[in-house]
Amino acid sequence: MTPQRRAGLGTNQEAVRRHNLGTLLRHVHGAGQISRAELTSLMGLNRSTIAGLVGELESLGISEHATPMGGARQGAGRPSAGVRIAAGGPYVIAVDLGVDRAVVARVGLGGRVLARAQAPVHSHGEAWQVGASVAALIRQVVEDAPPAAALVGIGISVPGLVRRRDGLVRLAPNLEWHDVSFGGIVLAALGLDVPVSLANDADLGALAEHVRGAGVGVDDLIYVSGNVGVGAGVIAGGVRLEGAGGYAGEVGHLRFNPQGRPCHCGNLGCWETEVGAHAIAEAIDCPPDKVAQLDEVLEGFTEPPRELRATGTALGHGLASIVNTFNPRLIVLGGYFRSLYPLVGAEVDSGLADRALPAPLESVTLVLPALGSDSALLGAAEIALEPLFVDPVAALGAALVDVRSRLAG
Amino acid sequence: MTPQRRAGLGTNQEAVRRHNLGTLLRHVHGAGQISRAELTSLMGLNRSTIAGLVGELESLGISEHATPMGGARQGAGRPSAGVRIAAGGPYVIAVDLGVDRAVVARVGLGGRVLARAQAPVHSHGEAWQVGASVAALIRQVVEDAPPAAALVGIGISVPGLVRRRDGLVRLAPNLEWHDVSFGGIVLAALGLDVPVSLANDADLGALAEHVRGAGVGVDDLIYVSGNVGVGAGVIAGGVRLEGAGGYAGEVGHLRFNPQGRPCHCGNLGCWETEVGAHAIAEAIDCPPDKVAQLDEVLEGFTEPPRELRATGTALGHGLASIVNTFNPRLIVLGGYFRSLYPLVGAEVDSGLADRALPAPLESVTLVLPALGSDSALLGAAEIALEPLFVDPVAALGAALVDVRSRLAG
C-alpha cells in the first residue's frame, strides 16, 4: 500500500468517525437523555467505540454524563451510564414568522427553548421592516446566552413557498412577498455571518412533530396547517417530501369547489377558500382585523357554532383527498385547525370517512400537535441544528461564540 | 479478539460483499452495458474490488465480458473493459393485468423482454379464471427458456389498490375484485412456489420510467395513468412514495367537481369521473364495450374531436392539483393519456398553466412514457428482479431452474 493510499484511508476513517459522532448526537438530541447501552444497540457499534464518541462529545461541551435512568430497560444487569445534552452547549436561533407576529427562540440541542421573544408584524410591512423586527427579537434572546456557547445557525419558518436551493421566499401571499431573500435581510440587519436556513411553516411543523411530537416513530405523516392560508408538510417513508424545488405540500390549492370563491392564487374554489382563515372568519362574523388571531377567536367558543359545521365537513372532505393521495398513518392538525377540530371534530371525521377510499382510511388517525403552537418554531430549530448531526466538529468550527458582543459591535 | 467475534466480523464482511455485488448488478442492469472504470467511479470502490465482484457475477452466469465501448467517456487512456448482462442468465415473469387483457413477459436483467404473450381477460371474470389465463400465458413464455436459466420470481401489475405488506388486492374496481390474493391464485394455478410480488400499475409505471424510461436521473416524477380508472405512481426524492399501506397515489379520487357525476367509489365528481375512460367514451360516443380499448379508439382520430377539448382542460386542471401537491420535475402521461395528449395537448397545457402555482409550475415538464405501453409490465419485472440487487447469491439460491419441466409435471 502506498503512503498516498494510506492517507486516503485515514481521511475516510475520519469521515466515518465524524459521521458516527453526528449520528450519536442525533440520538441524544432526539431522546434528550439516553443510555450508552441504548446507543450501542441503536448504532450497531461496540461499547468502546460508543465510549470514545461519547467522550469526544463531552470534550466538545455538547453532552455530559447523566446518572443512570434505572434498570427497567437494561435487563437484569447494572443500569448503563447515560448521556444527556449539556447546559451551556451550542444553540440555534429559531424564527417562526407568522402573518401577524414573529416568534423568536434560542433553542438548544434536545429542542430545549432557552429564551423566547415575540412581537407583532405588520402584514403589509416591507420585508426589511420585518427583518429589522426579527433582528431585534434575536438580540433579545441571545442577551442571556453564555458567552462561550456557540451559535450554530438560524432557522426561519415562513408562511409561503421557499426555494430549497437558496431559501428564497418565492411567494408569501399573506405577507404580500414575492422573491424575497429574507435570510439575507435578517443577517444584514444583525451584521452577522452565520448559516441561515428557511423553509415553509407546514414543512417545519411536520418535521418537528416527527422528531419530537405526535409523530415520533411514524414514517408516514402529514401536518396540515391552518395559518391564514392552508398548507401541508409531508413525511413519507420517514423522509421529508420536498418536491423538485422545495414547494411540495400546497394542498390549500387543491381544487375543491370550481363554482366557489376566488382564491388569491387566481383560481376559483381552492380548498383554502373553504377552510382558510378568511372563509372561517366570514362564517362566524369575525372582524377582518382578527383573522390572523383566528385560533384565539375559535378558542373563545364554549359551544360549537352552527355556522362552523360546514367548515368541518369541508375540512374532512379535503383531508379525504389528502388521504387518497398520500395514504398517511397520521394527520396532525396544526395552526388554527388545532382550535377548530375540538369544535367540529364530528363533522371533520364524518366528512373524511364519507369521502376517503376504505383501504387508506382504515389506517389513518387525526391528532392535534403534541408541540402545541410551537411545531413550526421547533422545526425551524431542527433545520438550523442539522449541520451538527452531519459533522459536529465542522459545525462547531463554523459556529460563532460570544454572539452578544458581536451584535453590540 | 475471541473466535466468536472474528466469526461475526467475517459474516459482516460477507454481507457487505454481497451488498456490493447486488449494487454492482443494479448498475449493470440499469445501464445494460457499463465499463469497469464507470463502476469504480460510481461505487467508490477500488479497481481490484470491482474486478473481484465482476468475476463473481460472471461465475454466477449473470454477466459477461463486453468489448470496450470506445474511449469517449474514458479520457485519453485505454478504453476500460466492459460488463454486460449475459444471455441465458436469470429471468423473471412480468404480468401486466389490465381490465380487458393480460400481458405476460419473460424478462431478463437489463429489462430485456425475452418472450411475450397476451390474452383477453373478462372484466367480470372470477379471480381464479383470470389466474388460470395468466398461468397459461406464463407457461407460454417459459416454453423457450433455457433449462439452466433461473426463474427469480413473478411480478404482477394490478389496476387497483394493493396492500404492500402481503400483496393482497384490496380493490380492483374495474375487475370488481375485493380482497383477492391474486399472487397465491396464480402460483396455485402453476403449481410452483416462487416469490411473487404485486403492486399497483401506476406505481410500477413510475418505477419503470424512472429506472429505464423518460425519468432516468429525475428524482421527482409522477406517472399518471389512464387505465379505465385514473391513478398515479410517485417517485419523490428518488424513492417510491408508497404511503403507510402501499395505497398512495389514488389521484383519480381527488375531489374535482362536487356537482359532478357519481364515481364508483361512492362520491360525486372525483377527477376520474371527468378524465376516466367512461367519461371520455361518453364524450366521443364510443360504445361501452370499447372502453377498455380507449387508447386504440383515440389513436384512430386524425383530427382532434371538439368534444375532447373539455377533457383536455379537465386533465390539465387536475394535473395542476398534482403539481401543487407534489412539485414534480416530470409528469409522465401513461395509459390512454398517451393517446389523448397528442390530440388535446394545447388544452392540457393551458389548463395546467392556468391552475398551478407559478413556483412549482416553472420546473415541471409533461412527457409521454419512453417505454410506450410497457411501463407497468417492465415495472412488474423490476419488483420481481429486486431480490437480485439486494443479494444476488441468496436470490439465485432461492430461484427455480428447469421451470418448463416443473410446470409440465
UniProtKB/TrEMBL annotation, chains A, B:
InterPro entries tied to this protein: ATPase_NBD, ROK, WH-like_DNA-bd_sf, WH_DNA-bd_sf
Protein name as annotated: ROK family protein
Membrane-spanning segments: none
Family: Belongs to the ROK (NagC/XylR) family.
Pfam families: ROK
SUPFAM superfamilies: Actin-like ATPase domain, Winged helix' DNA-binding domain
Native source organism of the sequence: Nocardioides ganghwensis
